[in-house]
Design goal:
Strand order of the largest sheet: 1-2-6-21-5-4-3
Distance between the termini: 46 Å
Number of strands: 21
Strand content: 25-35%
Largest sheet: 7 strands, mixed
Structural class: alpha+beta
Helix content: 25-40%
Radius of gyration: 43 Å
Mean pLDDT: 81
């Protein structure tokens, strides 16, 4: 056999078998690249792996496998990010599915029990009625608008309304008592940290009425705890609570205008002529002379008429410089519960504001205070109210006024698109894992 015959024979030996109907061109190309040296180098399993396009250490085909690996990693990343977006925006998607007609929840006073809202209202489109606490309303400034956060009184610290307003829109003098919008948990509102700080910087209190005798009974508790009967039931007083004690003394404040009676001596002579105990408080230049007079409530009309005798403009109208007026001697003391004590027929309270008076030697003199505390007859206390600070309830709600379900259609569309993308990538990963398991 000649050399050329031998060469031809070797070439024929390396020729691949003719393609069959069941083989793909890619398989034929792979087999074209094999010869006996491949079998010696990789063995039977290696050759089979190469035909299946799996990586073989040291094989030049390996870079193609690396590209395939990057595609798998990308699918994982897309799937993970997509799942995060789906979970994060599911609340808006679910709200979009709700009816466009708001649920009538009625009066907040009937919903809230002792200032706490019930569960189960998150992400519902509702209409409710309540009393806005306009005095403590807060305003948040956004890039394109303002949002006013107003507390609904009946909800304590567990219900607010977020009322949007365009920057060029006129400010309303008052909020309406009806609010329609999306209910959201306070802690899930992006503005919650800001609102929490606002309440800390600007404390809000709610007032609870109580009977005077209930205060005396609470002070006499033997266990040291002050529990008082109120309009909301029995209430255990806390350290941050304050008791507002309204004192109505038998004294009245008399003011005589300086335009009607120029000299303080003449004004005092007019008061002394009443024959009642009195004390000079002082004069306000260019305004009025001021006195405190012990006047029984039943005699006050007659006393006022006597003070106004002979004056050109007896009542003075709204001008304090003219005429004479007689004002009730009402004083309000706001004290911590622990600083209230009883002593016989008197209640001992921290002294605040101006003095309270007692009769001594036919004249009124300030009641003596010891260590900043003053004794007041219990009979002078006319009303008691408990002031309790409002604590922001993270499990409460905020009504996003004007936030209708239909406004979230873009979010809903995005959510559906992400569902499709996540599904396609998850299917790709599943197919890849099944192929690897089969190999």
């Amino acid at each position: 056999m000649s050399a050329s015959d031998s060469s031809d024979s070797g070439e024929r030996r390396r020729e691949p078998p003719a393609p069959t109907g069941g083989r793909s061109p890619a398989s034929d190309d792979a087999e074209d690249a094999l010869d006996l040296s491949d079998l010696e180098k990789y063995g039977v399993e290696g050759v089979v792996a190469r035909l299946d396009d799996d990586p073989i250490p040291g094989d030049p085909v390996a870079p193609a496998r690396v590209r395939r690996g990057r595609s798998t990693v990308l699918s994982v990343i897309i799937t993970v990010i997509g799942l995060y977006l789906l979970v994060d925006s599911f609340s808006d998607f679910r709200y979009w599915l709700r009816s466009g007609d708001p649920e009538p929840l009625g009066e907040v006073a009937e919903l809230a029990k002792h200032g706490t809202m019930p569960d189960g209202l998150h992400d519902r489109y509702v209409t409710l009625h309540g009393t806005p606490d306009v005095r403590n309303a807060a305003r948040m400034t956004l890039e394109d608008r303002y949002v006013g956060y107003v507390r609904l009184v009946e909800g304590g610290g567990s219900l607010f309304a977020a009322v949007p307003r365009e920057k060029d829109e006129k400010v309303k003098d008052e909020f309406e008592g009806t609010f329609t919008g999306r209910m959201k948990r306070l802690r899930r509102d992006a503005a919650y940290p800001w609102l929490e700080q606002y309440v800390l910087d600007n404390p809000i209190t709610r007032t609870i009425d109580a009977e005077v005798d209930a205060l005396w009974a609470a002070i006499g508790d033997v266990d040291g705890r002050m529990e008082i009967e109120t309009s909301e039931g029995r209430l255990a007083l806390e350290q941050n609570d304050r008791v507002r004690v309204i004192v109505q003394s038998p004294d009245a404040r008399v003011q005589i205008g300086t335009s009607s009676v120029r000299k303080v001596e003449d004004a005092e002579a007019r008061v002394a002529a009443l024959g009642l105990p009195y004390a000079i408080v002082g004069s306000r230049p260019g305004s009025f002379h001021s006195f405190v007079v012990r006047v029984p409530p039943a005699d006050r009309d007659a006393v006022l008429a006597k003070l106004q005798e002979g004056l050109e403009d007896p009542s003075g109208g709204t001008d304090p410089k003219r005429g004479a007026v007689l004002l009730p001697g009402s004083t309000t003391l706001i004290v911590p519960p622990a600083e209230i004590a009883l002593s016989g027929d008197d209640v001992v309270l921290p002294l605040q504001g101006g003095p309270l008076y007692e009769v001594e030697g036919g004249k009124l003199v300030p009641r003596a205070a010891a260590d900043g505390r003053v004794r007041i007859p219990k009979a002078w206390v006319q009303a008691v109210r408990i002031e309790r600070p409002i604590a922001l309830d993270p499990n409460g709600y905020v009504v996003m006024v004007g936030d209708e379900p239909g406004k979230h259609w873009r979010t809903a569309l995005m959510w559906l698109v992400v569902v499709v993308l996540v599904g396609l990538n998850a299917a790709n990963l599943w197919t890849h894992l099944r192929r690897r398991a089969a190999a």
